[in-house]
Amino acid sequence: MSESALIGIDLGKHTFHLHGQDKSGREVFRKKCSRGQMMQFFGNSPSCVVVMEACAGSHYVARQLSAMGHTAKLISPQFVRPFVKGNKNDFVDAEAICEAASRPSMRFVTLKTESQQTLSVLHRMRESLVHDRTKTANQMHGFLLEFGISLPKGLAIMKRLANVLAEHELPVRLTVLLQRLHDHFAYLDEQIKVLDKELAGQLADDDLGSRLLSLPCVGPITASLLAVEMGDGKQYRCSRDFAASVGLVPRQYSTGGKANLLGISKRGDKHLRQLLVQCSRVYMQNLEHQKGTLADWVRSLLSRRHSNVVACALANKLARIAWAIAAHNTQYEAGPDALNA
């Protein structure tokens, strides 16, 4: 196998399917192996380009192969799917990965470090805990409504649940069950606070994350997730490419020379896009206290467009500013008279 060979890997939990081809694209070998056998195979092989889909475990395998001297690349699965020929199986998938990677215009996923993956896990855990906490509060509201007790919306009512239960005559067994549900809510709330402290601590040690905090209305959660997903920003050609990867640019359906722009594409990380839109809405709610070029632009846009459109446009702007901060090693400056929330 020559050094210019290209190998595609169809990843699995226990078995891996390899497809190798030479520089001209001719198939050299096909191989099915376990994880240990695959690592042994690449350890005894000359340096080559190894490509796989960006999925569970792909970043770890790519780091291992890079340490062996190979060039590891990751491709989004949506870009591999059009190259699957005929019926789908694991070897055909590996061949399609090679075919996609051989295209000169193909876009690859940036390899994440262990620290970036760890921080991403922390964000996923927090997101899951917040979801469970909201579900628990909604359950409490629903159970009480079955007994004629209607509570205001929100989580604040959970803090004075004991007073609410004391004001109404409820079955003893129901009170015990509701108290158990309240204890679960308190546990989830405490775990979220612990993760928030860990996020703030990790962000203080991260140079990029600390500079991203200079963005208006961007807090530790959004800043740390931006740092994880964006890295140094060099994998994106410009700020618009990063905004497009988050799904904050218009989706096109153009034909016959007529441009037709739809709503935002909603590609990429849904959680990051959600956070950026929330930051935009907070900025708009406090717009009377904001000064500088960005605030003037938002006011001008609000005078002629709906607030939802402005929120998405501002989220796009924040994403592009974040890329500039990362790519040019700077921080956000709104002007000497600006007041950042």
List the helices and strands and how they pair.
Blueprint: E1 6-10, E2 15-21, E3 27-34, H1 35-43, E4 49-53, H2 58-67, E5 71-75, H3 77-80, H4 90-101, H5 114-145, H6 161-167, H7 172-204, H8 207-212, H9 220-230, H10 239-245, E6 250-252, E7 261-264, H11 270-285, H12 293-302, H13 307-327
Brief descriptors of the model:
341 residues, alpha/beta, Nucleotidyltransferase, domain 5, 3 domains, 5-stranded mixed sheet, two-stranded antiparallel ribbon, 52% helix, globular
Q: What string gives the helices and strands in order?
A: EEEHEHEHHHHHHHHEEHHH
Measured between the Cα atoms of the first and last residue, the distance is 59 Å
SS-based class: alpha/beta
How much of the sequence is in beta strands?
5-15%
Low-confidence spans: 336-341
- Individual helix count: 13
- What is the count of β-strands? 7
Total number of distinct structural domains: 3
Helix content: 40-55%
3D shape: globular
Query: What is the mean predicted local confidence, pLDDT?
Result: 86
Radius of gyration of CA atoms, rounded to a whole number:
25 Å
Sketch the major β-sheet.
5 strands, mixed
Within the largest sheet, what's the order of strands? 3-2-1-4-5
